[in-house]
Amino acid sequence: MRHLWQSIHADLTRLIALHSSRRQYLDLQRSHPGLARFADPGAVLDFLHRRDADPDDKNRILAILVSAAQRGDGKDAATTMVWLALWPGLDALYRRLWRHFRSDPAELVSEVAGRFAMEVHRADLGRIHRVAATLIANVERDIRDGLRRGWAEAALRREMPEPDDLGPDARPPSAFFDIPPGIDADAEADAIGRVLTSLVGGDASIVVAVVVMGEGQSEIADRLGISHDAVRKRYQRAIRRLRDALKEK
Questions:
Q1: Which end of the chain is more exposed for a tag (fewer CB within 10 A), N or C?
Q2: Which is nearest to 213 in space by CA: 199, 229, 196?
Q3: Which residues of 147-181 are buried (b: 16+ CB within 10 A; e: fewer)?
C-alpha cells in the first residue's frame, strides 16, 4: 500500500544525487553564506536530520532552503532538499492519515504532495517561527479540513446507500464496541483500543494497528523497534485471547 509513497522518497533521493543538483547547490552556496559550511546536499540533510543539532540552527538552514525553493537559482535543488529534510515528519503524517484513505491510497499521496508543495511555495518566512513544524501542521490541517467537509456533505445527503453497498470497511461498527455512528476515525480507533485493552491487554494496540488502521506487521515492527516475528506472535496471541473472550460473552 505504501509503495507509491515510498517511491517519491526514492525518486527524490536519486534526484538530489545527480550532478545537476550538485551544481545547483553550489549556486545556492554563493547566494546564501549560511550554507558555506556544508560541502554538498547530503551534508545539509545529515545536519537537518541530526537529533543533537541546535534547533535554532536547523531552523535557519531550513528557512534558507524554503526561501531558495520559492525563488532564485538552485530552486529545484532547494525544493528537493526541503522535501527530504522534512520527510520523517511527512512520513509520520502519511501514517496518521492513511486510515482515512484506505480505499484510495493514491489520493492521500496526491493530497500530501500537492498541499506540501503549496505550503512551501506560499510560506511567509517573516511570520513563521518554526519552519518544519508549521509546514507539516498546515498540511495536516488542510487535509483534515477537507475530510471534515466531505463527512459533513455526506451526512447531509438524504439518500444514502445501504452499508453493504459501501463494502465491509464502511459498515456500521459492531454494537459490541458501543461506538456511535459517524464518529471520527481517530476516535473510533481509540474507542476500539480501549475495549480491546480490557480484553487482551497491552497487545491491543497491535490489533488496532492491523485491523483498524490497516498497517502491515512489518511496518508495525519498524515503528516499535522490534522484530517482525515478535509482532506476528503478539498479534496472534492477542487474537486468540480476543476469540476466547468473545466466546464467554
A1: C
A2: 196
A3: beeeeeeeeeeeeeeeeeeeeeeeeeeeeeeebee
Give the C-alpha distances (Å, rounded to integers) separating 35 from 46, 68, 121, 209: 13, 12, 21, 41
* Residue closest to 5 by CA, chosen among 113, 78, 83, 88: 113
Residues 129-186 have pLDDT tens digits of: 899 999 999 999 999 888 887 766 665 554 444 444 334 444 444 444 555 554 555 5
DSSP E strands in the chain: the ranges are none
Residue 174, classed as helix, strand or coil, is coil
Buried b (16+ CB within 10 A) or exposed e, 76-87: ebbbbbbbbbbb
CA dist 167 to 62, 128, 162, 249, Å?
A: 44, 43, 9, 27
pTM of the model: 0.63
Residue with cell 507539516: 136
| Exposed e or buried b per residue across 27-43, where buried means at least 16 C-beta atoms within 10 angstroms of its C-beta | bbbeebeebeebeebbe
Task: Note the Cα 56 to chain centre separation in Å.
Answer: 24
If one counts every other C-beta atom within 10 angstroms of the C-beta of residue 214, the result is 15
Residues 6+ away with beta carbon under 8 Å from 17: 42
How big is the CA angle at 107 (ends 102 and 110), to the nearest 5 degrees?
A: 140
Give the phi and the psi of residue 194 in degrees, each rounded to 5. Answer: -65, -40
